[in-house]
Protein 1
Amino acid sequence: MKSVLVCYESQYGYSQKYAQWIAKELGGRALPVSQAGEEDVRKADLVVVGGGLYAGKVGGASFVKRHEAVLKGKLAALFTVGLSPTDKEEVFSPLMEKNFAPHILASTKVFHLRGGMDYQKLKWMHRMMMKMLVHMLRKKAPSERTRDDQGLLDSYGKAEDFSDPASVAPLVAYVKSLR
């Protein structure tokens, strides 16, 4: 039986929640990237890394870059967590390409999981960024807004949680297939 380590970067708890669900399903352990060191990666047979999507950045990407040599042959999957479904390849692919080297993406399966947002708990900078984004979206004609745009406008100022333990099933099945 191969050992699995799930490393995550989480600012508001959604990525942590998913990492813990994934680790539980795989019989592995979950560690924040700030606590996961090279020795933890070396000891694991398979590693899953993930984090939230914030302003074009993927949480956990710097961990993958920092530990790239020791992750070679062990990086089983990447996961992202965001408010929007991000099921559009034309949006999701450039984001991943911006954050990960081509050889990492070519050899690693990526999964997107839907998280949430509680506007009252956002850090000041994130709250300001959301306010500017909403302002720009409101200027768009309703007919020009995407489903994601409208979803963001509808949830602005509220607490939304779309996380679902069942949504880790495809990722878990994929990693189990590597064992």
Note: The chain has two domains: 4-115+162-178, 117-161.
Protein 2
Amino acid sequence: MKQETRESTLTVEEFEDFYAQKAAALTGQLYVMLGDLQEAQDVVQEAFVKGWSRRRQLDRDGHPEAWIRTVAWRLAVSRWRGHRRTADAWRRRGAPPGQVPEPGPEQVVLVDALRELPAQQRRTLTLHYLCDLTVEQIAHEAGLSPSTVKTHLARGRTALARHLRDVHFEEGPVV
């Protein structure tokens, strides 16, 4: 692979050669860093996918192997943080990771009512109430204006209340 500075994008053949020459070594390096071969393989593959869309930057920087390694490491760290947040959430809820309690009738009714909403309202309500995102965070993530997010939240709550009001279930033991 050429390491000179130039303005062109790596060709498909050059990128394929780069992948063929470096994927195994990068996977080995990440395996040593992470201690998990499957995780190393996953993050290196994902880093190469990201690298494909940034071929011009890879070629211009002249250090594509370092770029792929850095991206793979950051992906692994991001995954660790996600796993840790999930485990922390399970601990706060009182259920150990891996043991998911069966949904009660309230959760089933809520999920069914949410399915009746338009997709954007359902997504907005989920991001706000389950993921604890602010209106601004939802707007950024969903590519909407804050006023549109607020509208989706208001309409979604109204529609959800209407659906939940129509649903009645009996409490008591199931025979």
Note: The two ends are 70 Å apart (CA to CA).
